[in-house]
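During the reporting period, we have paired protein sequences with backbone structure tokens. One record among many follows, to show the layout:
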Amino acid sequence: MGNSNGVVIETRNLNVYYGDKHVLKNVSVRIPEKRITAIMGPSGCGKTTFIKCLNRLIDLIDEARVSGEVLFRGVNIYDSNVDVTYIRRKIGMVFQKPNPLPMSIYDNVAYGLKIHGVKDKKILDEVVEKYLREVGLWDEVKDRLKEPASKLSGGQQQRLCIARALAVEPEVLLLDEPTASLDPLSANKIEKLLLRLKKQYTIVIVTHNVHQALRLADYVIFIYLGEVVEQGPSHEIFMKPKTTITRAFIRGDIS
């Protein structure tokens, strides 16, 4: 499904307002296919707002107004005839705090398929095992699939949420600071998982952790006060940042 230039999502003059507050200003970026793109910037600069625009989760915020375009494989997802459910299936989201559904481990992974009408237990079993394996959870939970997901540790819950997002076969995975609430060991597991997953998925991760971006990102978009200051291959941004503000952030002078 890849298009010639390997760009999966492109935004053009994306603006977001919360009431009178202008939160994102003329954001024009390109998200490369099967790479990890890190959205970097200090707290409160608009990173989470930005990724919520990429699968229209921003629609759920009452006072939010969006203008400009978000193109997914060349189609503006804000066009009136676009099926939002389809967009959110193709562009999955994992939040900062693990949010497993109040049901069993098994049902968490099977949830999306059941919503889309899959009832065949054999298919559900296969999918649950496949994606629990993909996130490295299968061996840890295979004997307790019927237990509530809430019994898992924080790191396990976050991997379960990733499995749940992958089970509906998205092309893009958005992650909003997915390791921020985890201990270093669990965070490390998630990072290794993302490096593995980028062979099959396009990944966008919001982080204010420069070291994490250094470890993971192929491409970096640096947002400051709602504007894109710089974007490019990660080695360029980290080795030769073009602006003083990017340099200051990488050095840790602004957080």
